[in-house]
Design a protein that fits this description.
A 4-stranded antiparallel sheet has the order 1-2-4-3, with helices on both faces. The chain starts with a helix and ends in a 5-residue tail after the last helix. It contains 9 helices and 4 strands. By secondary structure, it is α+β, with helices and mostly antiparallel strands. Helix content is 49%, strand content 13%. The chain has one domain: NADH Oxidase. It binds flavin mononucleotide (FMN). Flavin mononucleotide binds next to strand 3.
């Protein structure tokens, strides 16, 4: 598939067929991710792959618990949070996905950017550049998934159950995103975009 075709064809897919995904396909997708550019070539990413149903079920139980805790806290404090209910729907997509890839920023890069470069950026700015690098990797991955016939969903709703995800992974990394991958069980129409003129200015 041409790059342009993949860019135009990619959609956020939220319903997947119950099919297994081959290790080779998962590897191809992750390899596309690690070819992304990264600030100072730090390659701050790490990928946790869940492609078996029982492991995913354990994670889903933790995620449910995280959402339940949050809703209960808000209920006790009389706070309405419709965003939590809507974010919870993403768990259905995770449940259906053939593979879930949780992407983290490696701890080493969060706490010590000690590569002897005379940085004039502060640590936070460097963290931003690491997050941008990871975003570039994820974009490569979802385009590669499109290229080889899979649907994908970039997921940040796991942040609502952040502590549970970290505990599940037993990691000290920062959890940045997750990606659902599977064969499409829906073909969403293209979502609208702001016109070019509204988001672009040629400065003269
Ligand atoms: C950083 C990021 C996080 C996202 N998190 C979620 C999510 O948790 N759940 C979800 O259903 N969609 C999520 N999305 C998908 C967006 O809703 C989607 O990209 C947007 O509506 C545009 O639709 P399209 O991807 O089909 O063009 C996320 C997208 C991005 C880039």
């Amino acid at each position: 598939m041409e790059l342009t075709e993949a860019i135009y064809k990619r959609r956020s897919v939220r319903k997947f067929k119950k099919e297994t995904i081959s290790l080779d396909d998962i590897n191809q997708i992750i390899k596309a991710g690690i070819l992304a550019p990264s600030a100072k070539n730090r390659q701050p990413w790490f990928f946790y792959v869940i492609n078996d149903e029982s492991t995913k079920e354990l994670l889903l139980q933790r995620l449910q618990k995280g959402f339940d805790n949050l809703l209960e806290q808000n209920r006790q404090n009389n706070i309405q949070r419709p965003d939590i209910e809507s974010a919870r729907l993403t768990l259905n997509s995770i449940e259906q996905a053939s593979a879930l890839i949780i992407v983290t920023c490696r701890k080493k890069y969060i706490f010590s950017h000690d590569d002897n470069v005379d940085w004039y950026l502060n640590a936070r700015d460097i963290e931003v550049s690491d997050l941008l690098s990871i975003g570039a990797a994820i974009e490569n991955m979802i385009l590669k998934a499109t290229d080889i016939g899979y649907g994908s969903l970039w997921v940040c709703d796991i942040f609502y159950a952040y502590a549970q995800v970290v505990e599940f992974l037993q990691t000290q990394d920062a959890v940045v995103s997750a990606i659902c991958i599977g064969r499409n069980n829906e073909f969403p129409i293209k979502k609208s975009r702001l016109p070019l003129e509204d988001v672009c200015l040629f400065i003269k």
